[in-house]
Design goal:
Length: 299
């Protein structure tokens, strides 16, 4: 394998820092959640056009009906993930929202259990229960603040479920379609979904202050195109588990930024619950990696 020009671990760190800015830009914007989500994906699609059309558009014609159906479903799920997550930030803190959204690996394994009959070890199941306890601690602390904060936590958990469904439907298509084509297709479908949602909800696509347009563009550039591109680039040299565990530190970066930029206070319940979730999901991923390695040797 060729040597990378950039240290993949450095790229991974930059990727985590990039996605950590997402919740901050959403909080700073004055627009509705669906409008922010629409412009984030719309600008991402626009920025991808110069790369997609000359080099990858031919792939669209080799996608079969199943690929298109799964891509459309994935795009719709991604759209509602962003709506629910961005809306959660109107009710709860950046720390709580991002920690709960990063329960995604746990949701993903639950999804594979029911959809693909995948089995897990007792240790992995215990780690999953511990992560749930961590989310309960966070929610209990937010309940002490207000019922609206607890409502924000539920929205974040629902957003986590939607991003998991998006990934589960997408993994089948990605086996046959390149990353660029799949990403462009799903982002485009999500943009259309969000556009229709915005119109039906009665929200306005304009006018907005110039600062909001900057935040929309930054959401497309930094957490979406830079952050996720670096993750996808790093996977050539690093394992999926390593990248999954690194993403678990997004709430840490987001919480630190929220303290200094938004003047948010971090509660002890958020610290304890967040640490329990991060440690539990990390151990969960490590345990599953070991189990799969053993299964591979047995085969």
């Amino acid at each position: 394998m060729e040597n990378p020009k950039i240290n993949p671990y450095f790229a991974l760190i930059v990727g985590v820092l990039s996605v950590s800015t997402s919740a901050i830009f959403v909080k700073l914007s004055s627009a509705d959640a669906a409008v922010i989500a629409f412009y984030r994906l719309f600008f991402s699609v626009v920025l991808m056009i110069p790369l997609f059309f000359p080099n990858y558009i031919k792939e669209l014609f080799v996608m079969n009906i199943k690929d298109w159906i799964f891509s459309i479903i994935a795009g719709v799920f991604l759209a509602f993930h962003f709506i629910l997550w961005f809306e959660s930030l109107n009710y709860t803190t950046v720390a709580s929202s991002t920690v709960l959204v990063t329960l995604q690996p746990l949701f993903a394994f639950v999804g594979t259990f029911f959809l693909f009959n995948e089995r897990f070890s007792a240790k992995a199941i215990l780690c999953g229960f511990a992560a749930i306890i961590g989310s309960v601690i966070i929610s209990w602390g937010d309940f002490q603040i207000s019922g609206s904060a607890l409502y924000g936590d539920f929205l974040a958990l629902a957003a986590c479920a939607f991003i998991t469904a998006y990934l589960l439907f997408g993994q089948e298509v990605r086996k046959r379609i390149s990353l660029i084509t799949y990403t462009f297709t799903v982002y485009f479908i999500s943009s259309v979904t969000l556009f229709v949602y915005v119109l039906l909800s009665g929200s306005s696509l304009y006018p907005y202050p110039s600062a909001d347009w900057i935040y929309f563009l930054l959401l497309a550039l930094i957490p979406t195109l830079l952050g996720h591109t670096l993750f996808n680039w790093s996977i050539k040299w690093l394992s999926t588990s390593t990248i999954s565990m690194a993403i678990l530190f997004e709430p840490v970066g987001a919480a630190i930024l929220a303290v200094y930029i938004l003047n948010e206070k971090i509660l002890w319940t958020q610290i304890i619950g967040g640490m329990i979730i991060i440690v539990s999901v990390t151990l969960f991923l490590v345990q599953e990696k070991k189990s799969k390695a053993v299964q591979g040797l047995e085969k």
